[in-house]
Amino acid sequence: MKKPMLIKIAVALCGITITILILFFLPLWGTAILLSFLSGACCYELGAATGIVEDRFALICGLFVAAAMPWFWYFGMQSVALPVAALLFISTVFLNDVIRDRMGRSKTQAYIFLGAFVFPAFLSLLLPVLSSEHGKQLVLIPFIAAWSADTGAQLFGRCFGKRKLAPQISPNKTVEGFFGGLMFGVLGMAVYAAVICIMKRPVHWLSLLGFGFVGALFGTVGDLFFSYIKREHKIKDFGALMPQHGGVMDRFDSVVFVIPLFYVWIQLFPVA
Predict the structure, then answer these.
(1) What pTM value is reported for the model?
(2) Given a cut of 70, is residue 46 above it in pLDDT?
């Protein structure tokens, strides 16, 4: 096995191990710290790697808000803190551009808002999931659905891929890989449901299998969304924090879209 592949596997195993240890063996504040780090990294990568956010003041404000976002949910104050923080942040960044007489920066403001608020808010929804009944059983589901679909898409794409799915955004993605991803999303949920049954814990098979399909679908949308940003700005990866994996956004691109979907799903359908 080639050295880059060994490094990629080692980094993946290390990251998965650390994440599981934090989610399952530390109190909820451990997960809040992890999400705070991931949110800040996502904001920085989205603003700095693309080169779209050149204003250091705006980037620092974005990093601060992104890192604070999970704590809004941790302390149960998101319904008040979120709109207040959003209003103050947008006003501050906008007035900073007005005072410095800089026009044509609406795209910059949109990017920093995505990085500071939208994606950190999506990630932060893991906290109410984890703190809910059967939370430790539920929290892995968005990751399994997204990464199972990603694995299936790569395998089917390499073995059977002929028709391009979105050649202008991601040339390596194929229609065959897309359907393989949907199949693996359902398969991943089936395997996880079987594990839960072996552990003699309650599980709703139909709900989990349904989410495996829908989660794989939205995971693909998330993957394409971030690939679109990278293609537009002519970059291969958002960062280099994880060797052979790129940055945080490169590893969590599909998961970012699946987490809020799962949060809504468990409000509507029984899972455990």
Answers:
(1) 0.90
(2) yes
